[in-house]
UniProtKB/TrEMBL annotation:
Belongs to the HARBI1 family. Its cofactor is a divalent metal cation. It comes from Photinus pyralis. This is DDE Tnp4 domain-containing protein. Keywords: Hydrolase, Metal-binding, Nuclease, Nucleus. GO terms for molecular function: hydrolase activity; metal ion binding; nuclease activity. GO terms for cellular component: nucleus. Residues 158-309 form the DDE Tnp4 domain. It comes from the Eukaryota. It is found in: Nucleus.
Length: 369
């Protein structure tokens, strides 16, 4: 007889008059689970989940096989209720116990469901968030960018954004996650198209990592180095090194052509700045702070990116801003408030350029002179 059973046996058959306290296991209680797909109208559903019913059912169809249980015993949670639990978490950033209460299950169950659903949605990334590879895809993307501000050959706009962590990740490397603004985060690199859709994502670097370091160590840069995309270019801010496939703004403009180049470059990289704001407004969990371990953050970030692309493809409107989340202002507001560099004024003095900037000089001379 093991020690635990021996102690129970002794308490049950003890003849002494002492009053012993017994630990009584809490009875199992299965709470009612509402079916919000049918009980909420379209407006209320979007308000609570930040995606439409049609998009929800579309996603469910693609991941349902990953969410089904082998048996209906033990009051198993249906795939649709699992998906709604994760969507509610993405749309609010609430504590898991709160999300569980709304769904009718416990916090540990909500925790398991959120990560199970996140991993299932993240597996859809190659289908919904992909970089153009064929000549037709590259040409279509370049044409869409060119129509925005007549900047040639652009296949993507690149930048990084910080996804807040609600607390320190702990461990010896915790300080690496503290960014220059003083809070813990993951520095997420993204490349997008002109339609505010993610095409490439790198979500594994701590918040203290510089944007250029992330790009220099990503597989997409290696592909550009190998010439996989021909003469296609990316547009980024001055934090990146200007070269054959990366077009950055000029620090100072000395001619009218350079001024036109900078104006076009800023407007062409407009989508990536707007995209981060739209993404965080649609899924505030990426703005208010993730209350999960760092490894679990990766799947949640990728899952929200996949859902964002699906929503954009379905033509869904962007949710309204929540002032309490302190999200990035829209691009035009940033310009109006002077929080971004406006078009530089033409200067008179000459300057010497880095040899690596000859690709940028060629675009200025050929397209903006």
């Amino acid at each position: 007889m093991n020690p635990a059973r021996r102690r129970i046996f002794a308490m049950v058959f003890d003849d002494s008059d002492s009053e012993d306290e017994f630990l009584v296991r809490r009875p199992r209680w299965i709470r009612e689970r509402e079916d919000h797909i049918h009980t909420l109208d379209d407006l209320d559903f979007i308000t609570r989940y930040h995606v439409s019913k049609q998009t929800t059912l579309n996603v469910l169809q693609q991941i349902e096989d990953h969410l089904e249980y082998e048996t209906d015993k033990n009051f198993s949670i249906s795939p649709i209720n699992q998906l709604l639990c994760a969507l509610r978490f993405y749309a609010t950033g609430s504590f898991q116990v709160t999300v569980g209460d709304l769904g009718g299950f416990s916090q540990p169950t909500a925790h398991r469901i959120i990560h199970k659903v996140s991993n299932a949605i993240a597996l859809l990334r190659p289908r919904h968030a992909f970089f153009p590879e064929t000549d037709d895809q590259l040409l279509k993307t370049q044409t869409t960018f060119y129509r925005k501000a007549r900047f040639p050959k652009v296949v993507g706009a690149i930048d990084c954004t910080h996804v807040r962590l609600a607390k320190s990740p702990g461990g010896d490397n915790a300080k690496m996650y503290r960014n220059r603004k003083g809070y813990f985060s993951l520095n997420v690199q993204a490349i997008c198209n002109a339609n505010l859709e993610f095409m490439d994502i790198v979500a594994r670097w701590p918040g203290s990592t510089h944007d250029s370091y992330i790009f220099n160590n990503c597989s997409r840069r290696a592909m550009f180095e190998q010439g996989r995309y021909g003469d296609a270019v990316l547009v980024g801010d001055s934090g990146y090194a200007c070269n054959r496939y990366m077009m950055t703004p000029l620090d100072n403009c000395y001619t009218a052509a350079e001024n036109l180049y900078n104006e076009s470059q800023i407007r062409t990289r407009n989508p990536i700045e707007r995209l981060f704001g739209v993404w965080k407004r649609r899924f505030p969990v990426t703005a208010v702070g993730l209350r999960v371990s760092v490894p679990n953050c990766f799947a949640i970030i990728v899952a929200t990116i996949v859902l964002h692309n699906i929503a954009v493809g379905a033509g869904e409107q962007v949710p309204h801003d929540d002032d309490e989340l302190h999200l990035p202002a829209p691009w035009d507001v940033l310009l109006a408030q002077g929080q971004m560099g406006n078009d530089p004024q033409v200067q008179a003095a000459p300057r010497r350029e880095n040899p690596n900037h000859r690709w940028r000089r060629a675009i200025i001379d050929n397209y903006f002179t």
